[in-house]
């Protein structure tokens, strides 16, 4: 059965986020924005830039046209099952862990480089 789309972009973002089972923190993390930024989009005090809007559509399983216009013909993809939502959450967590590991490796490499440089200048 057809369900009318909310009239405002922010309302559609919030509705779809809730449908796919994401918290504001989880969605913000996946988009690479602050939680406050996402909250501002949802209440309508600001709007995402084009690149974030495209990412938002992808993460929420919909398209930019529906987010912007709320057209019935451009609606979200079918709501994922709980298994799909759980897997999406795990995937997001795994990506966060991979990013943290990458940052840690870069930090360690930088410290090694500094130690080696310091050792060579004192030799």
Automatic annotation (TrEMBL):
Organism: Ferruginivarius sediminum
SMART domains in alphabetical order: HTH_XRE (SM00530)
Gene3D superfamilies cross-referenced by the UniProt entry: lambda repressor-like DNA-binding domains
Protein name, entry field: XRE family transcriptional regulator
Keyword S-adenosyl-L-methionine in record: no
The HTH cro/C1-type domain, residue ranges: 13-67
Keywords: Coiled coil, DNA-binding, Transcription, Transcription regulation
PANTHER family: FELS-1 PROPHAGE TRANSCRIPTIONAL REGULATOR, PTHR40661
Coiled coil: 91-118
